[in-house]
Amino acid sequence: MVQIGNQWDNLLGDEFQKEYYLKLRRILAKEYQTTTIYPDMYDIFNALKYTDYPDVKAVILGQDPYHGVGQAHGLCFSVRKGVEPPPSLKNIFKEIQDELGIAPPNHGELTKWAKEGVLLLNTALTVRAGMANSHRGLGWEILTDRIIELLNKREEPIVFLLWGANAKQKSALITNPQHLVLKCAHPSPLSAYNGFFGCGHFKMCNDFLTSVGRTPIDWSL
Fold it and tell me: In this model, does residue 1 exceed pLDDT 80?
């Protein structure tokens, strides 16, 4: 079964035994054998591996992994070093520069953010090559909703950054008033000018963390 290697194992242990997840595993086993699936099966849970439950300071919620060759590696919006950053990620870097004066990096790998306490979670954790949303509705959303619910129960405040319609829908799961929920348009080129640019989320996130006595995120890479 799944071995994440930190507190998520205990928190999600029962979830990984439920019928919906066992069914999802069977589907994925066949998918990985018969077609090209991203990310690599060993990278599926990287968001949880890199950011343990008590270490989460902020959550950025994506939809599903990138579906191009060599892009997805288990962290939403992130691509490995050596892979051209996709347009949405470039827009994220632009907003960070506008807010905080941090110049865009020469790569798109966000692992450092994950280790800083930013949970980079997609709502579906796998995808078929070249087919966006192809694993939507297989059961991933049940698991990732459970992850959000567990974070909602945390006593220590968390910032949830919800960009775009799909992510905004998850705000219904965040009922604990001590958390901060920030919502705006998706950073995609199709919508970034409709409210993502100028949203102020990165500065607002750090201001909030500082106000509750937590170390702010270093958004540089």
Answer: no
What percent of the chain is helix, strand and coil (3-state, nearest 5)? Answer: 40, 10, 50
Interval 81-119: pLDDT, tens: 999 999 999 999 999 999 999 999 999 999 999 999 999
Q: From CA 21, how far away is CA 119, in angstroms rounded?
A: 21
- How far apart CA 168 and CA 212 sit, in angstroms, is 24
Task: For residue 77, give the nearest of 69, 65, 67 by alpha carbon.
Answer: 65
Do strands 37-38 and 58-62 pair parallel, antiparallel, or not at all (unpaired)?
A: unpaired
The number of residues in the chain equals 221
Catalytic residues, which ones? Answer: 64
pLDDT tens digits, one per residue of 190-219: 999 999 999 999 999 999 999 999 999 999
Q: What is the pTM of this model?
A: 0.97
State the number of CA atoms in the 13 A half-sphere of 5 facing the CB.
8
Q: How many CA atoms lie within 13 A of 154 on its CB side?
A: 25
CA distance 176 to 163: 19
Name the amino acid, one letter, at 207.
D
Give a three-class secondary structure readout of 189-203. Answer: CCCHHHCCCCCCHHH
